[in-house]
Write a structure and sequence with these properties.
The structure is a homodimer of 465-residue chains. Chain A is 37% helix and 23% strand. With 465 residues, chain A is an alpha/beta fold. Chain A folds into two domains: 264 residues, Zn peptidases (Aminopeptidase, 3-Layer(aba) Sandwich); 155 residues, 3-Layer(bba) Sandwich (Glucose Oxidase, domain 1), CATH 3.50.30.30. An eight-stranded mixed β-sheet of chain A has the order 1-9-11-10-12-15-13-14, with helices on both faces. In chain A, strands 2-8-4-5-6-7-3 form a seven-stranded mixed β-sheet, sandwiched between helices. In chain A, helix 8 packs across helix 13. Chain A is elongated and about 75 Å long. Chains A and B meet through helix 1 and helix 13 of A and helix 1 and helix 13 of B.
Chain lengths: 465, 465
């Protein structure tokens, strides 16, 4: 290629300017991509997060808000952050609900010629009242949709156990869609059934699998409605129960749960901070929730998110990256059965008139990271989405729409909410069960997630929103 | 919005044409997206592939070419295809190498004050000669790079065992990169060391993990070089051995392997075909390899790819999709230690002057599908990449560069080679080990992979390349 016309001075200046600006842009781009590469390499070759997760799972274990394990988890994550040389590590005190499961639950079929005394695999739902020693027993009325309750009415439901058999459908590309659609029975079923005089509820576990594991999770009692006991039933038993009821509709179930709610108690969010070098008043929060259900070790939900968040701080410090804006690592307390940690964090942010520009949550499991979901439909996040090319080598998609339960409390402040979105296909194999253990987490997958959010937060800290 | 100027006739015609073509395009788009949605939903809700995989793994198991299990796998997959109502199901006869492992291998340290008789976790490499009952024993020379052999020379290597301690590095975003870089020792190390008079080789297993599992895999002996025995050593023992050699360089290792190569034997590719309704002469092949290593059940490698390929035919038939072009489902035999199935398939294609427009292989594990890699740098596949929007709901990326070992033999025919690319982070936890079992495969992940390739093949069958 050669120039056919002589080049004018204006043109020359134009090309020079173009070259200068491109050169600059290429330089910035290359420097960012080199930093991001360092972040990924360090996360993979020195997997601190994975080591911390092993401790959190194996030495501490399940850590529901208010439990001794939750207190240990507060102390442990504070201790880790204290070793990282952050500018500030502190606790944010708050009151949390204190629900305990008590003795192992039991349930079996009664008043059946075929199935009597057949044990069922159950667990109490979180926040539920217990039956105590005497247990409860009643005929079982199966419903497939919440609206059926009204049709059945008090006449059919009073004194009965309502069996919410709403399966998590398997045909959605993303199982979270199915979870959202199927979870009404667990969340609200007890109060809805109690309105019509039901004495207890049995909820099909929320998983697309047919297996032997009851999945716990929290319910919420409505005001001024009697609180009735509620259990989750393993899907394999839910299928069997549904079939058995077709043959013997008069069969009954007995169950016994020993859970109770103690007075609210004191707990903490754990927070670590790196001060921004140029705009310290602009705050970027990164967090997961420190509490977990008690049946397993809270590995995917959400030990993974906690250690990935602390990894952000560790990688910044270790790689000597000085963020222009302030970064806060937050271990939120009580996401599972109260969200008090998220609420407290937002209250304090408001009280101190802090400027929270962006908050990222990682609470969807320690699986292979696939995308980072940013903001909501109403927010213009085009600038952030333009960082996509930097994530291509790591197969991470930047896309609109993200967030997390704990950080949702920052929405009224106009904060851009962001969520790490790992592969979700195996999430409901483990979610809220006794299988959510350290062994279920893969080192590379966990650490790639940590690297992905670190890289994203690095860009936010450098360039703002 | 309203028109300010009166609209001319020409303009009107232009707009009408625009509308007509857009409406058509929207229609076609919508119809394809509806078909693809059906494909995904059926794959997830009726997981036949997962059931077939359970049989292949649990009832048949590891199935190296020439083994009784490989014969059973031929019969089993032919039987499945016979139930699907395909236009043609047939076997393609071929000769395969017949290597057998024989009795369990053993290895331990000798001539050491500290570690004598310490057992090492090993397995023979595929295609290797065995030591027989007498075993071999020798001093161990560790090398980190192939080039060190020349530096050490015959003086240092004659009569010794060469220990190729080339770790699969953990810092690459995709572990296949690390695998490619680290695998020379396993593939070529025995002959390279034998050139300098070494009597045997010990190869560090190919995984980024530090664990107790030896990973087998095939080696290739060079012509006119003595064939010496070769074993893979678990990474945890490779680390220990390397450390021990620093303290006691004179330590020796004894190992005993009972593998042998029997005369070539007869085996088969299994092929099922749906004839194209409009261009039957244009052939699209979809396959995985039916043979597997013997240590595990060949679940991810490559039972998963086999059942996913058969799912393509099943989903077409069940959803009554009539492809315009011919689709061939191919179970390739002997990918692991010879590639004879792929060679035979290409020979027959050439002999019959068949027009193979595209071939897809799925042989990277039954993990969550992430992308479909298409063609190579020299091929224009823009038309195929434009189908991307149809895959957005399933988070599948269409990208350049793909293929697979078995279908690589079709490259000289100008065929576009395509590979399903699942998440690879856990692949080398299982690859070529006793852990590659059915339990390591997740139903949703496997079936999403099957749906992804079915959707892609559907588009190729409708629109060509």
């Amino acid at each position: 290629m050669h120039f056919e016309k002589p080049i004018s001075m204006n043109r020359l200046i134009f090309f020079l300017l173009l070259f200068w600006s491109c050169a600059n842009c290429t330089y910035a781009q290359r420097s960012d991509s080199a930093t991001i590469r360092q972040i990924y390499e360090t996360a993979l070759t020195q997997p601190k997060g994975y080591e911390w997760l092993e401790y959190l799972c194996k030495k501490i274990g399940g850590r529901l808000a208010g439990s001794p394990e939750a207190a240990a988890a507060v102390a442990f994550t504070r201790q880790i952050m204290d070793t990282l040389g952050l500018d500030r590590v502190y606790l944010q005190e708050l009151k949390v609900p204190h629900w305990i499961r008590g003795r192992q639950e039991k349930a079996f079929v009664t008043h059946s010629k075929r199935y009597s005394a057949l044990p069922l695999r159950i667990c109490a739902l979180g926040n539920a009242v217990g039956t105590g020693e005497k247990g409860i027993e009643g005929q079982v009325i199966e419903v497939k949709k919440m609206e059926e309750l009204e049709t059945l009415g008090r006449e059919k439901l009073a004194g009965k156990l309502v069996f919410f058999n709403m399966p998590m459908e398997n045909h959605y590309p993303n199982p979270f869609t199915a979870y959202g659609l199927a979870s009404a029975g667990r969340r609200a079923g007890a109060s809805e059934a109690a309105k019509y005089g039901a004495i207890g509820v049995i909820v099909r576990s929320l998983t697309t699998n047919i297996d032997e594991f009851p999945h716990t999770g929290s319910l919420r009692y409505a005001l001024n409605i009697p609180k009735i006991p509620a259990i989750a039933l393993a899907t394999i038993d839910a299928e069997a129960l549904s079939n058995a009821l077709k043959i013997e509709p008069e069969m009954q179930i007995y169950f016994e749960t020993h859970c109770q709610t103690l007075p609210d108690t004191t707990s903490y969010n754990v927070i670590g901070e790196i001060k921004g070098s140029e705009k310290p008043e602009e705050i970027i929060s990164v967090g997961g929730h420190l509490d977990s259900w008690d049946l397993g070790e809270g590995a995917h939900d959400d030990g993974a998110g906690c250690v990935q968040s602390i990894e952000v701080a560790r990688l910044f410090k270790q790689l000597n990256i000085k963020p222009k804006r302030t970064i806060r690592i937050v271990m939120f307390m009580n996401e599972e059965n109260g969200l008090r940690g998220g609420q407290k964090y937002a209250e304090e942010a408001e009280r101190l008139k802090e400027k929270h520009i962006l908050a990222l949550e990682t609470d969807a499991g320690g699986f292979s990271p696939r995308s980072i979901g940013i903001g909501d439909e109403a927010q213009n996040v085009d600038k952030l989405l333009k960082w996509q090319p930097l994530f291509v080598p790591y197969a991470i998609q930047l896309q609109k729409n993200g967030g997390g339960a704990d950080i949702s409390t920052l929405r009224p402040l106009g904060t851009i909410l962001v969520g790490l979105q790992p592969d979700s296909n195996r999430y409901f194999d483990f979610h809220h069960t006794s299988k959510d253990n350290f062994e279920a987490v893969n080192m590379r997958e966990l650490q790639l997630g940590a690297a992905s959010i670190t890289a994203f937060i690095y860009l936010v800290a450098q360039y703002g929103i």
